[in-house]
Amino acid sequence: xxxxxxxxxxxxxxLILLQVLIVQNIRLGSYIILFPYVLFILILPFETPKLLxxxxxxxxxxxxxxxxxxxxxxxxxxxxIGFLRYYILKLLSxxxxxxxxxxxxxxxxxSVWFVxxxxxxxxxxxxxxxxxxxxxxxxxxxxxxxVFISSISTFIFVYILQFLFYKSNKVK
Amino acid sequence: MNNxxxxxxxxxxxxxxxxxxxxxxxxxxxNKGYQGSKLINxxxxxxxxxxxxTANTKEYLQLKEExxxxxxxxxxxxxxxxxxxxxxxxxxxxQNDTLYRQEFEFINAKVINNTVNKRNNYxxxxxxxxxxxxxxxxxxxxxxxxxxxxxxxxxxxxxxxxLHKDVIVPCxxxxxxxxxxLLWEGLDYKYxxxxxxxxxxxxxxxxxxxxxxLSGIFPEGILVGFVDSHERRQNESFYTxxxxxxxxxxxxxxxxxxxxxxxTEKDSLEIKTQTQGDK
Lengths: 172, 279
Fold this sequence. Notes:
By secondary structure, chain A is an all-alpha fold. In chain A, 69% of the residues lie in helices and 0% in strands.
């Protein structure tokens, strides 16, 4: 339990620093914008209480807002995915439920499951972030294109990042 | 009554979610436009210190280019001092004998954080209210306009760059003196649009665009960029002119913040006449 808290706080710190110090400076044009910090919310353990997930998501968003000068934008988007994560996990759960002590990663759940899960959540997050940022309708389709391209790029980034946090346990 | 509490308790997940979202919306709406909230922006101590640290490391990598630029600017300034002028031996000569009064004061600052690829881009500067910075001051560098100060803390300030949807700068074509409005459409950080240019204007590629005196924040005649192309959009009787911005927004390092000394006097006079006119 304590170990889990430490591990997750460490991951939080690393991901925020990665986002703010490195990813923020990666410039791939105005359509590809990466937010790999959502990985923190994505791979909280299955048995984390749903209220805690909600609060942690809100805090994560607020921290990013502080660095990105966006005041509440990321907090709003993160709270939405913190809320929906519970229902998405329920929808995607295998027949016998999730095993105790597992985390939603490629390693423990397989890559097909992870692609569905992560892509859905990342897409919802980007949808909210970009539309709150623009806050008007006259750039609707351009923003939609931005959402699609950016979510796929963020997903690829997150997919690669997974291998840094988790070494395969299966090889023994 | 008990039923209500029971209902709230049963759905506590949803209601807490709702409360958090309402918090977010309040924060967002408070931060719209110029009146920024003081807590959640990058001029607070924690994020500013992190950015200061990275800026210090980055500065070393750009020293060479920066030196070149400063040397060039030094040359321009040197050309205006006594050193560059010979004493006239004539007995009679014409002199432009106008007295000048100082309207703008320039304060030097360093950029410690900067973005170009978002819809609304911000800079963070390493000076704040202790150094005399306040809201609505203009920011330029040696190549042209950069942005407008949005919020200040004691030692840092947060600046909306020209690449922001709320920054709208009155500009004019240098050659013809025609006024237009500069705004950014959110695509390429190298280009901006100048709207409301009447169709009788004769535009050529490479014409320079400068700030006009209408803005009340920027001094007149600061370079903005050069005309790239122009078009007349559907149902509009004005040209939309595409402008290549002169400053390289990816490489901002040293900037000057401009304090308009008579700003309060001008603003209070305008408010006074406007309220009198309404009566």
